[in-house]
Every structure is written in C-alpha cells, then in structure tokens.
Structure of DUF5078 domain-containing protein:
Amino acid sequence: MFALGAVALGFPAAAVADPPPDYIDGYVHSTDEYPIPRKMLLTTCTAEQLLDAAKYETPMEFDRYMMEYKKHGEDLEDRTKERMHWFFSLPPGVQGPRRDFSEHMAATFGDPLDVLYTDYAKIFVNNKGVVAKMAENCAKYPRDDQSAWDWRDDSPVAYN
C-alpha cells in the first residue's frame, strides 16, 4: 500500500502550499502585473500609439501579433480594435475600470472574443519587456493613426 500524503513521504506539513489569500474564494484574480501589466494600466497612450511603438521598438513582436491578428478576418479585427479602443479610453490607473477589466481577463474564460481569438490583446499584455518599450515610446507617435493596424507580411518595418 502506498501512502502519497505529505507526511507519508517525509515532507513537513509546511511544504504544502496554502492558496494565496485572494484565492480563498476559488477564483483567479489579477495583480498589478497580470494579465495586464502595470504600464498598460497606467499609460495615457492610445492603442494606435502603442502599436506604432511596437512596430518600431519591437518589430518582431509586432509582426508576430499582426500575423495572428490578420488570420482572423475582418469581423474579429474590428472587434479587437473596438475592445482595445474601449480599454484605452478608460481612465488610467491600477485601481478602477482598467484594473476591473484586468480582473475580468484573468477570471473569465467564456468571453466571446476570447473564445474566437484567444490572443486578441497579446501585444498589449505581452511580457513586461515588450510592454515597457511600448509604454516608454508611445507618446512620440500620433494618437489616432489608424494605419497602425495595417500590416503586410512583406512590411519594410520588419527586422530593420
């Protein structure tokens, strides 16, 4: 007979991790860095400024995102743009509506856009290094440049 409990294996009871205090209710919760990093919660830039910053500051990440974005068709492209415009129109802050949406992203797996296009916001919530470069440089790009969403796989920007 095999006993697989922590005590039977010789591990002290303290080795079993308790759930974090904010998980007591059984739900996943956002933090200041997950799923939407703090710099995105605080930025005053628009989605277009951030995309332009990604295009020129992290071109490989921009290309990866845009390749995926363009695979999903015009309807999902439009829904993605609408969602990003809505999010960046919310007041910046680590508390308030942006943080509330981050909480929604962390805990909701049935959002229609998530189901149809899981990575729709990936470039905006990507690793902190990419987000940092975008947030640090976005202000130098035009606020309403809709061409930021345009991309061709032979883009001259890529890898320059």
User: Anything to note?
Assistant: The helical segments are 38-42, 47-57, 59-70, 73-89, 97-107, 112-116, 122-125, 128-137. The radius of gyration is 20 Å. Residues 33-147 form one domain. The chain has a mean pLDDT of 78.
